[in-house]
Description:
Blueprint: H1 8-22, E1 31-38, H2 55-71, E2 74-80, H3 89-92, H4 97-106, E3 110-112, H5 122-131, E4 136-137, E5 141-143, E6 154-159, E7 162-170, H6 174-177, E8 186-188, H7 191-205, E9 210-216, H8 232-238, E10 246-248, E11 258-260, E12 263-264, E13 277-279, E14 282-285, E15 293-302, E16 305-315, E17 319-323, E18 329-333, H9 342-359, E19 362-367, H10 374-377, H11 383-396, E20 400-404, E21 415-418, H12 419-425, E22 431-438, H13 439-449, E23 460-463, E24 465-469, E25 474-479, E26 482-483, E27 489-495, H14 496-499, E28 514-520, H15 521-532, E29 535-536, E30 546-548, H16 551-577
Parallel strand pairs: 1-2, 2-3, 3-4, 7-9, 9-10, 10-14, 19-29, 20-27, 24-30
Antiparallel strand pairs: 1-15, 5-8, 6-7, 11-12, 13-14, 15-16, 17-18, 19-21, 20-23, 22-27, 22-28, 24-25, 25-26
Amino acid sequence: xxIPRWSGKGIALLLALTPMLSQAAVPDxxxxxxxxxxxxxxxxxxxxxxxxxxxxxxxxxxxxLRYDVQAKGGGAxxxxxxxxxxxxxxxxxxxxxxxxxxxxxxxxxxMALGNHEFDKPLDILRKQEKWAKFPFLxxxxxxxxxxxxxxxxxxxxxxxxxxxAVLGLITPQTAQLANPAALKDIEFRDPISETEKAVAExxxxxxxxxxxxLTHLGYDEDGxxxxxxxxxxxxxxxxxxxxxxxxxxxHSHDAVxxxxxxxxxxxxxxxxxxxxxxxxxxxxxxxxxxxxxxxxGDFTYRNGEITLASYQLVPVNLKHKIxxxxxxxxxxxxxxxxxxxxxxxxxLTPYQKRADxxxxxxxxxxxxxxxxxxxxxxxxxxxxxxxxxRAQMAHAKADFGxxxxxxxxxxxxxxxxxWRDLLQVQPFGNQVVSVTLTGAEIKKYLAVVANxxxxxxxxxxxxxxxxxxxxxSVSEVRIKGQPIDDKQSYRMATNSFNAAGGDGYPRxxxxxxxxxxxxxxxxxxxxxxKTHSPLxxxxxxxxxxxxxxxEAEIKARDEAAExxxxxxxxxxxxxxxxxxxxxxxxVQ
Length: 588
């Protein structure tokens, strides 16, 4: 290797130029850059039965999009907004190794950590971090004992002379959403204050032209985030204008396309136009889930001002079903089919075959659909919730069962059921546990879990319980059809995640009556299938046992109680005047 001889003046000149080379864009020059992004892949490295999504088609699409950006004089960043883990058994069995290695082949530049990256112990996440050729980013994850960040807070990229910083953020609700037992020395700090802190550090050290927040916070339309942590809209609105330029988000599985200001398009269909949200001068993007779409945002930068040139959600072989004249069905792609990249198929096929050998094993059958979709299990009692809890109650010899709806990840179809199907329903590997409580303790417990708001992972599924919840308390509580007795003891079945305080449930694993069976929930469900198949969906139908009062119903109840109190007041007053007995008073 030849090393050029530099004079002292030459070295001084090089050192003087170095800050200029690492700095900012040239004044009055227009730069083009693009963000290509996905989020919430949840183990979907392989295409589904209809040939939709998957990393092989995504690789071919990403290559095409990146080359198109470069041909137009721009530079592209490929970003993931987290939750690569958990959801597909083939990936879960292999600790998401095929997903991470597939992302390497695609050329991802950075990934924000999602809450499901913490489903397994930290050493698994560290192993995944070693596999990845791109950084895992999280500016607001700290080690409690040292007070230091556990992961890289940001990464800085140069695209065509433009310096772009990508800052990672994760929802602080991870402390409740992941298994608390694995998070004892981990702290998830407020993303808003941590963004201000990190951006100040970035501007002092790196001096980027553009700052992108790569977040796993969720999209909160018009800042209404319900029971979830403050999301991307709240983040953008809460920061001084100019703190961030762009947000690429995940967590809520939204296709963020705006119908009008603060109102997003509902039921977005592939091929429709898509305009990302903009709040406080910050563009906000999210691309649904599972790699169904690749988001593409094309931007220009000139003298510190960023302009959106175009945006689209590009479907990855998404299809719709049509009925043929002969009564058969066909699946057609919404847009031209994307070929599967051969190098990616060569990489992923051995992983898929290795996992399939363990997973495609029949465990039983169903007659009818067991409902486990997000919009059902997080908002109402379902037959799949009943099925899971009955299996756990039988295993633990319990009187009733409770679990959070977020622990149910998909439905069970009618027909033959495989071990893979059950692992898709319950992918987390939680253990079935029980705890013996008094009736009084149960009432306090139910007052918390029965009043967790719908449309969150904590929404509770119950079995052998009936009650009325009003948002703060519960009444008319019955166990196995009988009014609950404060002094009597009852055994409750649940899972180790909820017992440890997961999803915001009261902690029970430190209770004297706590027993961990050591058996994994999906395995307990498999045993139930083996002994009870075929399972009829109608046998597990709920019958309105859990009643959540509306605001109008609560108001009517309270007004009726007040009227009753006022009607009884004169008699109470007379009883005080004539304590020897109201029967002597002639009250009209």
